[in-house]
Amino acid sequence: MDDRTELSGFLKSRRARLRPQDVGLRDYGGVRRVAGLRREELARVAGVRCLLSTVRPPMNSSTWHWDTA
After folding, report:
1. Which helix (H) or strand (E) holds 51?
2. Cα gap 26→16, rounded to integer Å
3. Is residue 62 assigned to a domain?
4. Which of 2, 16, 24, 45 supports an S-S bond with 36, CB 3.0-4.6 Å?
5. Cα 59 to chain centroid, rounded
6. pLDDT block averages, 10 residues each, the chain of length 69
7. Calpha distance 2→5 (Å, rounded)
């Protein structure tokens, strides 16, 4: 297993353990497709924009700037 796959699995497993109420967010109900926090909720708790939690930098990261994401 490569590092990216291992990290992805770890993060997904930890996110799946949390519910919105566990981290002080309101649960709006409804059916969730996956267990745990949604990406937007996780980003809110982490204090980052949701875009940053889903964007991957390009291969040539020397030109990448997070503030342009």
Report:
1. helix 50-54
2. 17
3. no
4. 16
5. 21
6. 87 89 86 84 83 59 56
7. 6
